[in-house]
Amino acid sequence: MSGNLFARSIHDLSVAAWFGGSLMGAIGLNGATSQAKDATERTRLSSLGWKKWAPVQTGAFAAHLASLGPILWENKGRYTAQDGVMAATWIKTAVTAAGAAATLYAAILGKKVDELAAEGARGATEPGAETSADLAKAQNQLKLLQWVIPGVAATVIVLGAWHGEMQRPKNVKLGLLKD
C-alpha cells in the first residue's frame, strides 16, 4: 500500500480538533458562561476556558503543518500531472491560512476581553450596559468570529474530502487524461 496513513490521519484529526473545539467553545463554553450570576464572571470564565484550550489548538495547528511535508512529498507528481489537484491544493491552502489568521485574531481579541473582564458583560460575546467601548468592540468582533472559525474549519474538512475523492482511481484516470 502506497501512501502515508499516519500523516493523513494527523492532518485530518488536527482539523477536526480545530472544528470541534471552536464549535464547542462558541456553543458550550460561551453559552454556559453567559449564565453566570455575576456579570464579571461571564467574560472571566470564558477567557479561562479558552486559555485551557489554546495549547491544544496550537498543537493541532502545529501537527497540521508538520503533516504537510509527507503528504506533499507523497503526492508531488499529482500536482502537475492530474488536472485540478494543484488548484484544489491552493484553494485549501488559502482557506486554511485565512482560518488560521481568523483564529489568531480571535485569540488577540480574547486577550483583550480577558484584560477587561472586570467590567462585566451580558455574556462572553455580548456587551452589557456598563461595558466600555473597547470591550464591546472586541466582544462584537468575537461574536462574529466564533461562527466564522468553525465554518472555515468545516470548509477545510470538505476540501480535504475533495482531495480524497480526486485520488479515486477513476478520478485519477480522468484527471490524467485532461489536456
Keywords:
179 residues, mainly alpha, 0% strand, transmembrane helix, transmembrane, membrane
Note the beta-strand portion: under 5%
Main sheet record: none
Class derived from helix and strand content = mainly alpha
Radius of gyration: 20 Å
Task: Give the helix tally.
Answer: 6
- The low-confidence parts are none
End-to-end C-alpha gap? 29 Å
The tally of strands reads 0
Q: What is the H/E order?
A: HHHHHH
Question: What spatial form do the alpha-carbon principal axes imply?
Answer: elongated
Number of domains: 1
What is the percent of helical residues?
A: over 70%
Average pLDDT rating? 91
Give a description of the structure.
Keywords: Membrane, Transmembrane, Transmembrane helix. By secondary structure, the chain is mostly helical. It has one domain. The protein is 81% helix and 0% strand. It is built from 6 helices and no strands. The two termini are 29 Å apart. 28% of the residues are buried. The mean pLDDT is 91.
Kindly summarize this structure in a few lines.
With about 180 residues, the protein is mostly helical.
Write the layout of secondary structure elements.
Elements: H1 5-33, H2 39-74, H3 76-81, H4 85-115, H5 133-166, H6 169-177
